[in-house]
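ok, trying the design again with the full structure, not the truncated one.
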């Protein structure tokens, strides 16, 4: 029995809180890098150099989107996400993340930051499981020499 067996409501209100407001990481998969660099008209190397940062995990690094000094995501424009159709897996699966779906409390706690949680469209347990599964795709790893 999961607390979301009867589904959960979510409808993005486009408030942009999750794309700005607080420092954070958007870790990219290999497919994310391919799609985002294509959407930006850049090579993957250029995209990583201009739009990403390497986050150090000791023997390896993960690739995360850059943030501006006010914590806005580098991809955030006045008209919204510059790569919305090619947005990273982490953004596409939000808020159906493992840590958010740990319990009803964690879901409700997330809802205090995201006004779309608990509103609008009902996602079935099956859809939620599918998003959780999709989110398991590992991030792109850069081995440090
Ligand atoms: S915080 Fe929630 S409602 Fe606001 S943009 Fe992000 S997903 Fe949408």
């Amino acid at each position: 029995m999961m607390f979301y067996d009867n589904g959960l409501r979510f409808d993005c209100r486009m408030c942009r809180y999750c794309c700005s407001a607080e420092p954070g990481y958007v870790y990219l998969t290999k497919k994310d890098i391919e799609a985002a660099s294509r959407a930006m008209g850049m090579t993957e190397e250029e995209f990583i150099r201009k739009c990403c940062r390497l986050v150090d995990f000791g023997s390896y690094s993960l690739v995360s989107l850059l943030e501006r000094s006010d914590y806005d995501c580098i991809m955030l424009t006045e008209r919204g996400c510059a790569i919305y159709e090619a947005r990273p897996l982490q953004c596409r699966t939000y808020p159906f993340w493992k840590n958010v779906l740990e319990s009803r409390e964690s879901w409700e706690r997330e809802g205090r930051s995201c006004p779309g949680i608990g509103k609008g469209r009902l996602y079935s347990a099956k859809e939620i499981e599918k998003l959780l599964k999709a989110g398991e795709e590992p991030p792109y790893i850069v081995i440090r020499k």
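Keeping the full-length input from now on. The longest strand covers residues 117-123.
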